[in-house]
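In the laboratory, one determines a bound structure by crystallizing the protein with its ligand and collecting diffraction data. In a computational setting the workflow is compressed into a single prediction: the sequence and the ligand go in, and a structural description comes out. We illustrate the idea with zinc ion.
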Amino acid sequence: MVPVLFQCRDCGGNVIESRRDGRFYEHHKVLINLPISFTIPECVSCGQGWFSDELIQKMDMVLEAEYMEHADLITSIVNFYNHQQQK
Ligand SMILES: [Zn+2]
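The predicted complex, in structure-token form:
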């Protein structure tokens, strides 16, 4: 069983720690896939995510680390597309 953190302030449903793949967030103008290990309190009824200031700060650090890890690849892709558009 997953512990219920609190009741959703939108619909009253159960909010639990959620983790899944495919959550993309914009960071430095690119979309970064948030690591699956990163949990976000999310309502099981309406899907609303609940972000505290602390969580947003933590998420920003994780996104920055992901960005830096792939920075060379991202830069080369951006340069490639910019070059393509100039043709
Ligand atoms: Zn809800």
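The pocket of zinc ion is lined by residues 8, 10-11, 13, 43, 45-46, 48 (CB under 6 Å). Keep in mind that any predicted model is a hypothesis to be tested, not a measurement.
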